[in-house]
Specification:
The protein folds into two domains: about 100 residues, RNA polymerase sigma factor, region 2, helix turn helix motif (Rna Polymerase Sigma Factor, Chain: A, Orthogonal Bundle); about 70 residues, Arc Repressor Mutant, subunit A. Helices cover about 70% and strands about 0% of the residues. It contains eight helices and no strands. Helix 1 crosses helix 2, helix 3 packs across helix 4 and helix 6 crosses helix 8. The longest helix is centred in the middle third of the chain and has 27 residues. The chain starts with 18 loop residues before the first helix and ends with a helix. The N terminus is likely disordered.
């Protein structure tokens, strides 16, 4: 299928999907065109992986989930509601897979008698803190957010979706998106300040 991704490039966002071209690609995928299938997987995998990584905070789990999401997207594509945007349908599917995975992991920890490890406070950073270290800090801080706040933050601030797109993907009101986004930003700011040796 698609090679797994091992890095999370922060600025590698794709331009908004050109609806007509994307619809043509989906039609070709439905006709089982091998080139279209390959193009579809190459186009969708990076976005799916970034959302999964943002919600799960683990590259290996994001790799596995991205593969599972692509399989499910392709399997469910014929029954997709054409009135709903493909992007919100895709994001909803990925978020639901992440939720299921997180529930399964939490239940497994309870069954095994393990509590999730809390990250240790980091030493004061150098002035030249590398970008990958900052990405790691953000990933750890995201894990501390309640799931719905994390979902809103990842879709809105990391993936650049509009409030309306986030609301449609999560099945909530735009006012809830704004509220959850404000809460998540505040919690992240506080968590990052704490981890970086402030407050």
């Amino acid at each position: 299928m698609v090679a797994t991704t091992t890095v999370n490039p922060p600025d590698m966002r794709f331009e908004p999907e050109t609806t007509k071209r994307h619809d043509l690609l989906l039609e070709r995928v439905l006709r089982q065109d091998a080139d279209a299938l390959d193009g579809f997987c190459r186009q969708e995998h990076p976005r799916i992986w970034r959302v999964a990584f943002g919600l799960l905070g683990d590259a290996s789990q994001a790799d596995d989930l991205a593969q599972e999401a692509l399989i499910r997207l392709l399997d469910r594509l014929p029954g997709r509601d054409p009135q709903r945007s493909f992007a919100s349908w895709r994001d909803t599917l990925v978020i639901n897979l992440c939720r299921d995975h997180l529930r399964s992991t939490t239940n497994r920890r309870r069954f095994e008698g393990q509590a999730p490890a809390l990250p240790a406070r980091l030493p004061a950073p150098d002035a030249a803190l590398r970008q990958d270290e900052l990405r790691g800090l953000l990933s750890e801080a995201l894990k501390l957010l309640p799931p719905r706040e994390r979902e809103v933050f990842v879709l809105r601030d990391l993936e650049g979706c509009s409030n309306a797109q986030v609301a449609e993907s999560l099945g909530i009101q735009e006012s809830s998106v704004r509220s959850l986004l404000s809460l998540s930003r505040g919690r992240l700011k506080s968590a990052l300040a704490h981890r970086l040796g402030g407050v």
